[in-house]
Amino acid sequence: MVSSDKGGVAGDKVFSGLALTAGIIILLVLAFVALFLTVNSRDAVYSPETGFDFGTFFSYAYPLLLGSLMASAIALLIATPVAVGVALYLSHYAPPKLSRGIGYIIDLLAAIPSVVYGAWGMTFLAPALVPLYDVLHEHLSFIPLFAGDPSQTGRTILTGGIVLSVMIIAIITAVSREIFMQTPKLHEEAALALGATKWEMIRTAVFPFARAGIISGVMLGLGRALGETMAVALVLSVGPLTFSLISSGNATIPAEIALNFPEAPPGSERQAQLIAIGLVLFLLTLVVNMIARWIVSRHKEFSGAN
After folding, report:
1. What Pfam families does the record point to (predicted)?
2. How big is the CA angle at 34 (ends 33 and 36), to the nearest 5 degrees?
3. Quick one: which H or E segment has residue 113?
4. What is residue 8's predicted lDDT score, i.e. its pLDDT?
5. Residue 57 · residue 191 · CB < 8 Å
6. Angle formed by the axes of helices 253-260 and 54-92, to 10°?
7. Per residue in 70-91, pLDDT tens?
8. How far apart are CA 103 and CA 108, in angstroms?
9. pLDDT tens, 121-146?
10. C-alpha–C-alpha distance, residues 94 and 163, integer Å
11. Which fold has domain 60-299?
């Protein structure tokens, strides 16, 4: 019995050491990535002749940053309600066999390579949306988002956002479904016993319990959307910054890096610019994740034990 206790203590120490080592390695990798980006992006904002010049870099990075945010925002606005609705149907409405089958299909969406989504968006979705863009421009051109000449190729920031929304639906759905299924049955049965309808039970028992999990899933989807490269690079028709969703133009940071980095001479100012906008994207995703963790921590007190 004593030897068993000693073995358990030794096992705990080994596991604790491995977990600590893994955590330190992750922090070191993160620190080295940040250091690499910072050091190699110096030439984008500094030259020995003129010193630091952030204005030129800002004028270059601002349209790319705005394009990334626009595409990601469109993707979230489309994907979040669809994904939460699908997850709710699978967890509380669909028969078990149908729920498992649909769940497997949705999970497969996350396994499809992004270049396939990009090819689908470029060859099928973009041309199919051209008539819709003409209609939107004809009837809603007084709204800045639908002003400007509609693209005749369909390769716009809105098309890119729709493609991204399809890509992140699987992530948000998978996380939300698991959280919905973990809702304490006692909470659900208590709400039903008090006379609540099924929707009222979901609204008062399921959603409050799953709020933090839904936010986590949405933020994971946002991280995927912000960092997506090939799908957006194939779909977008790169051009000047425009606030119109139906006009050609705009670009995102990942697409800009992917399309131009191979041709940038090593050690050149152009390469430093691309690394610098990579640093901007790195900081943006870091801030987004910190905000997500803060939001989740505000609601983590609600659990099945309450």
Report:
1. BPD_transp_1
2. 65
3. none
4. 65
5. no
6. 120
7. 888 999 999 999 999 999 998 8
8. 9
9. 888 988 898 898 888 888 888 888 88
10. 27
11. MetI-like fold (1.10.3720)
